[in-house]
Specification:
By secondary structure, the chain is α+β, with helices and mostly antiparallel strands. The protein has a single domain, classed as Alpha-Beta Complex (Lambda Exonuclease, Chain A). Helices cover 37% and strands 32% of the residues. The protein is built from seven helices and nine strands, in the order βααααβββαβββαββα. α1 packs antiparallel against α3, α2 packs across α3 and α4 packs across α5. The chain starts with 6 loop residues before the first strand and ends in a 15-residue tail after the last helix. The model has no long low-confidence stretch (mean pLDDT 93).
Length: 261
């Protein structure tokens, strides 16, 4: 069956394409009122175009922001499964006046150090009691350009809901509404026979001050509606295919074309 697939798209690649499409809006949000912007609007659009091509080509990149999210996710999975990590160094930080009282979790990952309050970690782990972490999902999406395989990893799969863990330094309502996991993952699950349609982005907003590490937690709820969301998903995927074909001479990683060297 996979030999008949024309493209293989992972869920967060659709987010990268969305960032490219939304580059003008993103630019206005961050630099629209700046007297000395880091980029012009055209330069920023070109930057997003090149970043998308690099993402398609799986060019390695160093991102402390992305590594923080990966590290926090691993801490939560370790707590849920009561296991040690074989991916990164994780240890406990205790109160200096009471070495039996754990206050924070320290993670070393890709030469970055991250500190997470133990209360935050326990809040997330307790919320996901009974969840299955890191569940691979995939499904075929028919398009006018042929059949596409969509795939990805669900952070936490509960019996009645799908959960994606996010970390951020600053949160505003609806921050992740233009992401695509809340459509791709339920689509894959429904195509596989599951009827789990409720989706949550569970968000940890972390703010390091001079004296303490503060945090807040937020949740964005979405409900997958096949009659509406499948049309949106198909249109978005077809747009990404058109982008890829327009830049085919720049695509060096052939896995996206279902070609394995």
């Amino acid at each position: 069956m996979k030999k008949q697939l024309k493209y293989l798209f992972y869920a967060t690649l659709l987010d990268a394409y969305q960032d490219y499409l939304s580059s003008d809006k993103i630019y206005q949000e961050y630099w629209g009122f700046s007297e000395n912007p880091e980029f012009s609007e055209d330069e920023f659009h070109e930057k997003k175009r090149l970043e998308l091509i690099d993402r398609i080509n799986r060019v390695p990149f160093d991102s402390e922001k992305a590594d923080r999210g990966t590290a926090f996710n691993e801490v939560i999975d370790c707590l849920i499964l009561n296991r040690k990590s074989d991916k990164m160094k994780i240890d406990r930080i205790c109160d200096p006046n009471d070495n039996t009282l754990v206050t924070n979790i320290r993670v070393i990952y890709n030469e970055h150090e991250f500190i997470f309050p133990i209360a935050l970690c326990r809040e997330f782990a307790d919320y996901y009691k009974g969840a299955i972490p890191q569940v691979h999902v995939e499904a075929v999406l028919p398009t006018k350009y042929g059949n596409i395989l969509l795939y990805g990893y669900v952070d936490e799969l509960m019996s009645a809901s799908v959960h994606d863990i996010k970390t951020t330094g600053k949160y505003s309502a609806g921050k992740f509404k233009n992401h695509w996991q809340h459509i791709v993952y339920p689509y894959c699950l429904c195509e596989s026979g599951s009827q789990v349609r409720d989706f949550e982005y569970n968000i940890a907003a972390l703010n390091q001050t001079k004296y303490e590490l503060k945090y807040e937690t937020f949740t964005e709820f979405y409900s997958y509606v096949p009659e509406v969301d499948n049309l949106r998903l198909t249109k978005h995927v077809e747009g990404l295919i058109e982008f890829i074909e327009a830049h085919r001479d720049l695509i060096t990683d052939k896995k996206i074309f279902n070609q394995h060297e």
